[in-house]
Amino acid sequence: MGPRIGGARARCRPLLPCGHREIPDPHRARRRLSHYREPGCADRRGAAGLGPLLCDPPRLVMFRERKRYDVIHCLDTRLAVIWPALAYAKAHGIPIVSDWIDWWGRGGLIEERRPGWYKATLGGVETWFEEHYRAKLDGLTTISHALMRRGIDLGCKPERCIVINGAADMTTFANPSTKEEARARAGLPLDAPIVCFSGLDVLIDLPLAVRAFEIIHEKMPDARLLLVGPTEAEARAASSPATPLPAITALGKVPYKELPSVLPAAYLFLLPYPNKIVNVGRWPNKIGDYMAVGRPTVANPVGELNELFQRFPVGLLAGETAEDMAASSLHLLRDPELANEIGRKARKAAETDLSWSSQIERLENWYQDILTAKSQSSSYRGVPQPHVPASPAG
What we know:
Helices cover 40% and strands 13% of the residues. The chain is of the alpha/beta class. The protein folds into 2 domains: 7-167 and 357-376, Rossmann fold, CATH 3.40.50; 179-351, Glycogen Phosphorylase B (Rossmann fold, 3-Layer(aba) Sandwich), CATH 3.40.50.2000. The chain has a 6-stranded parallel β-sheet with strand order 10-9-8-11-12-13, sandwiched between helices. A 4-stranded parallel β-sheet has the order 4-5-6-7, sandwiched between helices. It has a 3-stranded antiparallel β-sheet with strand order 1-2-3, with no helix packed on it. Strand 4 (72-74), helix 3 (79-92) and strand 5 form a beta-alpha-beta unit. Helix 8 packs across helix 13 (322-333) and helix 11 packs across helix 14 (336-351).
């Protein structure tokens, strides 16, 4: 589990303070979760490093010769992950569980982020691997309630499923910069109402955020838009010719560890989140960053964001139009007392219920439940043999 730094590593990093150990992968120049030990507990080992094993026989031998694992947690069910994990789990008779963090097939990310030829030739294979093994394993962690419901529909036992959302990285954001420090660093005016949008590789919602800001700027000419991630060229492409360029500051990509020195420049954050399958099935990790710096967020009532905003007063939910998002933003910009109160409550939630320590405690308790269920079963069924169907379903 972890902060917004991408892929499997993003779901593993916060386990390290609990006693886990990271080791370098000399073949990939990447670091992968190895194992951790707690007082009074057996070793736990993660499957984050299983991906390259099929292409790396020496690592496969090393993996098989290591000390016995208690649980294998696959951060994916693609071929390169699930087959080595299944082989090891079957050989040693230990439980194996999977993590599900994105909705790929059946109208999900494959439709948005893959070219037509890929969808036509490999879309069915992707969907088959995404779904086939879920109910055959011993448990399922998902990043959203929608994915958990999908898993249950596939045959997963509800008592073996748990939702582990993303969370706030309070280690990185322990002491964020002040508003004045952050604005000085970004070259922004100290007293201007500043709205912020951040994004890394996927900027599908940038035009909506920019259009919402343009409406705000019409009402508040001194307002500024801070873009963290998008470049100046991307900002120009998303904005209208009538918007004065000085009103938009695009910093480009900012290293994650530097975000606590940049994000506090904002008065509020825009988080467009339209109602589509991709968003219903995922968790926007940047909401944890926004909460950690103690600022309100204007978002849409979709998926996990709707659940979050119902539980905690971390911002305002608006319709999916630029006009609606601008109206909610203007409401906060004109009511500093309300905005500050929401910001304080967002930071409090980030430090408590939405912290990684809270999420990790739930995950570790769930691991114990999986182990207990196995030990109490007199006819433990083991794990399935890996195989591929003759004709993958679409």
